[in-house]
Amino acid sequence: MADTSDLKTPDPAIAEEIADEKKRLPSIADDPISADPPVDDPDAPQLTVRSVLVGCLLGTLISASNFYLGLKLGWTFGAGIFGSIFGYTIILLISSFFAKLIASNVTFISFLGKALGRPFNAREHATLCSAATASGSGTLAGYISGIPAMYRLGLLSTRPSDDYGRLFVWAIAASLYGIFFAVPLRQWFVLKQDLPFPSPRATAVIIQSVNAAGGAEMAKKKTLAVFVAFGCIFSFMAIVYFVPVVQNWHIFYWLAMAFPSDSDAYNNLMWANKWNFYIQWTFAFVGAGMMTPGNTVISLVFGTVLAWGIIGPMLYSKGVLTGPASCRFKMDKCVVGGKPYVVTDLPSARYWLLWVGVFLMLAASFTELFSNWRTIASGFKALGSTVKGGIAKMTGKATTAEERVDQDPAPLNQRVPAWAWVGGLVLSVILSVVVLSVAFGVGVGESILAIICGFLFAFIGLQSSGETDINPTGTIAKTSQVVLAAVPPYAPSGPELAAKQTANLASGLLAAAAAHQSVDMVSDLKTGHLVGASPRAQFYAQLIGSIWSSVVGLGVWALFTTAYPCITNLELDDVCLDKGFSLTAVQAWYGITLALTKNAAVPSSSLYTAISAGLFTIVFVVLKNTVIPKKYHPYLINLNAVGIAFTNTDSSIMFAIFFGWLFGLIWKKVNANGHEHYMYAVAAGLIAGEGVFGVVQAIFAIAGVESATDIGMPK
Known about the structure:
Helices cover 68% and strands 2% of the residues. By secondary structure, the protein is mainly α. α7 (164-192) packs across α15 (373-395), α14 runs parallel beside α25 (604-626) and α21 (494-531) crosses α22 (535-563).
């Protein structure tokens, strides 16, 4: 009998949730998918070809979806829950088929049967999710944020295809830090602090419940829910491509058509439509809304109405903004009647509101962090003690009881060897310095500074994500641009300015990528910890998945930039807006770079408003954390979400998120049991369905397949 004394057991809280789940499971049909999984074999391998391959394929779907969705709003979605549901069913199908080959007299076929037909378990399932999470991070290199900003500033080649080589090595360098950072960070955030990590915990519950006795039937039903949602939305988007009015309900435009074109009613209704107040049934964001807390959703809608329904129009009507109103959504240059305008000189509404939104997000994120400064300070102190203790144990010089006690429940043969993560981290530093220097002309000092910023942001992001499930690295990482802009020399124009802008963006992207990947990978290790998976198996799966994501990411980038040249060409910005790509993250990186390196004028009225909004946010967050009881926090406005709304020009997306949240609320009220079991599955299907069709849509665009009609659409 195998020795199981060194195996980890699942978290007791997770076990209790699984027990509740099992009580609600229906009877089990006698078919390969519904059959109970066999008893978990403690000696079964966790890092397998099938788990890594299936995980990478599922991650590829999410990565491709994230390109499309990220260009629309700047948001991306993780592959953990998607992989935990779909991965289980796919592996069970593979296992069921190949198990029949084990008894074959042909050696090779018998080998395949033993390799692919062995029983599946929760630990191997966690490894599959690790591969899916890592391979789903194809946008990590900045393809939906800083890289397009570089092209729009004229810092890279005029043709994106000329840069494929350097972008690929850059993506490799950017994708590795998080994996190596994650190993020591796991010791503090997962083992010592034992933070809850809500989303990884939800993934762990799914993994354990479907792998428990009777769980296969529930897995089958959840997979069916994903398939149905995916299929319906994929089909819906196919119809929408040829008949856009099915998805885009320009209600104000339709109403305006009922009035004479010289009437006040006509002008007011058309004004509302021109400010992008319409309904777009973008079901990916309906799915996102189903999973988003109510106060965040309400804050997004409030911010949208405030920014684009009240402040924006008022700025023009009061004469604060004197540029052409038709340039309202521009960030740099605009041509009206053959006459060029520079919106940084004659600000557009988008440029004016950008700074208010950025100040809101930065103030909200940093005040939340500083409100918990004791926790963060103790975290750094404890992390130092953990590293010191680890070195003491490795060198045999442990002196204190804490240093002598091994707090890691993983068996020694399942832990990541020190040489693997330390050596990998050193090689990553060297690779990044070389790549940034050769590909982007960044100095060694700036590269090292970016890496340090990335580690600090990762630590801060993990503290927030582990406690609240909110990852603020996307916002706070932009402060790396401020830090790096202070590095001399100052370059007001010419080639020196271009070099300064390139260094600022590339270094900032490295810090952001390192921080974001670290949060994702530690969160993934939390899932593994809860189900008793091997950290070493997860580590290698993450490594394979990250390298794979670099390949996939470049391929999808090539597809989208070929289909939509407007992504990299500032002159074609209107085309992107017409296609529904607001390029929110791109414009934020672009605008901040201009302001920091070119001294592009921030309108005084915008700056004063932004500072006032920032000060209000600081006071509000401090009061929330010191005076207002915690039980009321879910009902308070989320000022970070308001800031996001100020930077996004497409109001329809926020309304789609609202409709998703409202649908989830009604569903939970009518059928709480069904909502509990299938909400995540349906949401994942909605997100993946539209995202994957976004890839098909790009292929259609390259092939020249056009919409069949523009009936009902604004002229």
